[in-house]
């Protein structure tokens, strides 16, 4: 399909995602070498699976990932993810694999962007994820001039987790695709706050020209470059 433009950079992004895990991360979560295999599956899903547009393609790549897991890691995929097999069918499908999540935002420590060294780790309790994001949302609204009234649920938590994963990587970027009002901007702002980064967004008006754009760009570059502050540049489709 013409819009599937994958190259070797995508493979490097999988490896870059795997390097986020420290050695002591193998000892947490479910632990053991299986966690590193699950991380590979997670990063591959985020880089390739999330960009596919229909169920047929998603089903194909999931089957291929299962094949590669057995061939190169010597691990049975369904055994590796049996903790996600909610209906005890012996087979982990794409719906159950939604609960495969990694992140560093469950800890109380300072985020990496503010000098912390949080552990990128496997997340096992989905209820705690939603609760933790609600805590972040309360903190954000208490500090922000434009508080957000969001209802946190698992589907939103999945997307916040995906955005946080990208923000943890140096110089990374992301395109959020969805219908209007689905929370692309709000979840991006929340993820930026969770990762300790300043979220910068331009304000379009009738009088906004390339002059104002250049000034906004200078302001952002001074913050990110001259002052060395970790920042997020957020664009909406209307901009």
How would you describe what is shown here?
The protein has 8 helices and 4 strands. The chain has a two-stranded antiparallel sheet. Helix 1 runs antiparallel to helix 2 (33-47). It starts with 7 loop residues before the first helix and ends in a 6-residue tail after the last strand. The chain is globular. Helix 8 links the parallel strand 3 (198-200) and strand 4 (231-233). With 239 residues, the protein is mainly alpha-helical.
What's the short story on this structure?
With 239 residues, the protein is mainly alpha-helical.
Q: What layout of secondary structure does this protein have?
A:
Blueprint: H1 8-18, H2 33-47, H3 55-73, H4 77-80, E1 101-103, E2 121-123, H5 126-143, H6 154-168, H7 184-194, E3 198-200, H8 210-226, E4 231-233
Parallel strand pairs: 3-4
Antiparallel strand pairs: 1-2
Helix pairs in contact: 1-2, 2-3, 6-7
The biggest sheet amounts to:
2 strands, antiparallel
Helix tally equals: 8
DSSP summary, beta strand count = 4
Helix content: 40-55%
> Which stretches are poorly predicted, pLDDT < 50 over at least 5 residues?
none
C-alpha termini separation: 28 Å
Shape: globular
**On the 0-100 scale, what is the average pLDDT?**
88
């Amino acid at each position: 399909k013409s819009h599937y433009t994958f190259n070797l950079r995508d493979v490097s992004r999988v490896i870059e995602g795997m390097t986020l895990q420290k050695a002591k991360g193998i000892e947490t979560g479910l632990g053991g070498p299986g966690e590193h295999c699950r991380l590979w599956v997670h990063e591959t899903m985020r880089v390739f699976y999330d960009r596919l547009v229909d169920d047929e393609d998603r089903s194909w790549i999931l089957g291929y990932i299962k094949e590669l897991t057995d061939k190169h890691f010597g691990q049975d995929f369904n055994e590796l993810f049996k903790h996600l097999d909610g209906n005890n069918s012996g087979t982990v499908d794409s719906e159950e694999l939604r609960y495969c999540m990694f992140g560093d935002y469950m800890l109380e420590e300072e985020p990496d962007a503010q000098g912390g060294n949080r552990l990128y780790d496997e997340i096992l309790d989905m209820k705690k994820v939603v609760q933790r994001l609600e805590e972040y949302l309360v903190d954000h609204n208490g500090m922000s001039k434009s508080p957000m009234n969001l209802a946190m649920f698992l589907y939103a938590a999945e997307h916040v987790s995906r955005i946080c994963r990208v923000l943890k990587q140096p110089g990374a970027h992301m395109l959020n695709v969805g219908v209007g009002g689905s929370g692309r901007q709000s979840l991006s702002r929340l993820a930026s706050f969770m990762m300790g980064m300043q979220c910068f967004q331009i304000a379009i008006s009738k009088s906004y020209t390339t002059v104002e754009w250049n000034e906004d760009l200078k302001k952002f570059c001074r913050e990110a470059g001259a002052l060395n502050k970790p920042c997020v540049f957020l664009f909406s489709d209307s901009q």
